[in-house]
Design goal:
Chain A: It is found in: Cytoplasm, Cytosol; Nucleus. The complex is a heterodimer of chains A (about 150) and B (about 200). By secondary structure, chain A is an all-alpha fold. Chain A has 6 helices and no strands. In chain A, about 80% of the residues lie in helices and about 0% in strands. Classes of the chains: A mainly alpha (about 150), B alpha/beta (about 200). Chains A and B meet through helix 2, helix 3 and helix 4 of A and helix 1 of B.
């Protein structure tokens, strides 16, 4: 089936570039390994939880940094810490690294620095989300065309 | 009768993502899993009232032979949680006469040596760095076998686990506490008294 091969090739290319660009790391591969016939949608499920959780956390950070009467840096840091943890858990390496940098600005209580970091984290997060959604879409297309998902590494 | 090798793990983590992940890891390793999102819910599940340390045996799901509502062979908990931390939970379990023999494993995303030694000193069996991998969970089974052997001492359970006394793998230098229990035969445990050195 030509269309299946085409889609599978696209999937592999997409997956490879995700790793090459450092958007995801080995931990994402570990997640994929945990997906099997007992838990066929595991990766999508975890990643969906991650998206929901992250958007909430990013909003928390933005709101906390907006406070005119004084920023509660502990609160900002708490959200960054959570995002760092969850991004690490799913292998979202660039998001995680952006969080690490963010935490030092929280510690320094540097509002400008924090705002820049928030921009960076948000950017990395959006990039990740777009790329993963494309990956999942390709998976669906492959399955719908009767093919199987190429196994990671 | 349930298979001897079915161990029940209680996983505690405030992060929904991490709960999902640890659940999948544990199930893939053939453990039965219950997940809760806080230390207080963990204690509740274990049948312990925080204030008086007395086991509540009045709930309908309690088996007459067990003190706990459900048998838990290991607790794996995140360290950093709001309210009761994993360390606080560990302490409460080890201070409880009925729960102290349940092995506890701590997970943390941060590699802080003082944190690690504090947990090990308080009785944690292992300290795992997040993200936890399948290979990390292979370290858990020996700790759970210890509790099965303990249960064998009690008249109502007949396990065949004796011949499976596995030596502790002591090549992990985080396990300072375990040096007393290596390839020796596991010592019989008296009820309520821990045999750990």
């Amino acid at each position: 089936m030509d269309i299946v091969n085409q889609l599978q090739r696209q999937f592999i290319d997409h997956s490879t570039s995700l790793h090459r660009e450092g958007i995801v790391d080995d931990q994402f591969t570990e997640l994929q390994k945990l997906q099997d016939e007992n838990s066929p949608d595991f990766v999508v499920e975890v990643v969906s939880l991650f998206f929901e959780d992250s958007e909430k956390l990013l909003n928390n950070m933005a709101r906390a940094l907006e406070q005119a009467q004084g920023v509660d840096f502990k609160q900002v840091d708490a959200s960054v810490h959570q995002l760092k943890g969850s991004s690490s858990s799913i292998g979202a390496m660039r998001v995680k690294n952006a969080c690490i940098a963010f935490r030092s600005f929280c510690e320094a209580q540097n509002r400008e620095g924090c705002l820049r970091c928030l921009q960076k984290v948000t950017h990395e997060y959006s990039l990740l989300k777009n790329k993963l959604q494309s990956l999942f879409r390709l998976e669906q297309q492959i399955l719908a065309a009767g093919g199987s998902i190429p196994v990671a590494k | 009768m349930a298979a001897d090798s079915e161990f029940h793990v209680l996983a505690v983590d405030d992060s929904i993502i991490d709960r999902k992940l640890i659940e999948r890891l544990l199930k893939t390793s053939s453990f039965q899993v219950t997940t809760v999102d806080s230390g207080s819910k963990a204690l509740e599940f274990l049948g312990l009232h925080e204030d008086d340390g007395i086991i509540n045996t009045n709930t309908p799901s309690v088996s007459p032979n067990n003190h706990q509502e459900v048998e838990v062979n290991l607790v794996i908990t995140d360290y950093c949680m709001p309210g009761m931390t994993g360390y606080d939970l560990l302490k409460k379990i080890k201070e409880s006469s009925s729960l102290k023999n349940i092995p506890v494993v701590i997970m943390s995303s941060e590699n802080v040596p003082s944190r690690i030694s504090r947990c090990l000193e308080e009785g944690a069996e292992e300290f795992l760095l997040k993200p936890v991998r399948l290979s990390d969970l292979n370290k858990l089974r020996p700790h759970m076998l210890k509790t099965k052997i303990k249960d064998h001492q009690e008249p109502e359970k007949q396990d065949k686990e004796e011949k499976q006394q596995q030596p502790q793998s002591n090549n992990n230098n985080r396990k300072a506490m375990e040096e007393g229990i290596s390839t020796e035969k596991i010592r019989p445990r008296l009820n309520g008294i821990t045999a750990m050195v």
